[in-house]
Predict the structure.
Amino acid sequence: MTQKKILSAFAVALFSTVFVGGIFYLTDNRFKTTEDDKMFSWGFVVIYFSGMFIVSLFSERLMKLFKKN
């Protein structure tokens, strides 16, 4: 994999996480309560970012796999 592909996947994952996380943050009422609920939301952000990064990184291979079947 090239450095350009890795940076591109990172940028897509970061933008998507900020966008979705921002909407989640603005619409979720739990942020006004306790610290414990915020930690769950940070877990969501980390899992979402990791998933988006992996999918963006291997998107071409995944598309080839689904086209074969």
In short: Residues 8-68 form one domain. The chain has a mean pLDDT of 78.
